[in-house]
Amino acid sequence: MDSRCAIVTGSSSGLGLEISRSLLHSGFIVFGGSRSGTDLEHENFYDVELDISLSASVDEFYETVREFTSQIHLVVNNAGICEMASVGETSAEVFEQHLATNTLGPFLLFQGLESFIVKNETHIVSILSTAAHYGYPNVGAYNASKFGQLGLIESLKKEWKEHKVRFTNLFPGAIDTPLWDKLGTKFSRDKMLRSEDFMSVFDFIVTAPAVIQFPEVTFLHREGYLE
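-> structure tokens emitted (227 positions)
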């Protein structure tokens, strides 16, 4: 493959699906990883089964990717889960599920990525949310898992310094996606970013000249943090 290759986790719906479409439009070959798969059809889109919380699944995902390419130019670390409950009402099982998907998952993803890195080119964009550095009530498991993911990435930046990998951590505020339908909250959707708002920031960062680095980008609806 001579084209630029990208990995997008959580590609089956929401932001992951929109990101995949945008990258395909920009000429990337996209390997989308998700548990449920997607109906997205494009000659340069490879829909690969992936449960990011399971080591064996991540290994199989990379085995499939290696059948097509040995180089990954862009990784969008997007897969994640979120459930709302107070700390007192959150079971240990639910807490562990958040850590498995949102913290262990990226750890496994990065472990398998190193052999695919293109020195001075590979760009890792992580969709972290403001919950990675701002505490919200009733999402303790989500907050903890995102804080943990951020710590992992900060350590990896130093470990992979010799590879000249670009890291961009995105900290968007609440985004109006189908996730909120499942959460059943009463937050006003009018005070959330739209998917198009997120994509305008994402597209700008991904298409900017490679000499420019965006280590951290926080962006919110103009109404501010959602509480």
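The chain has one domain: 5-219.
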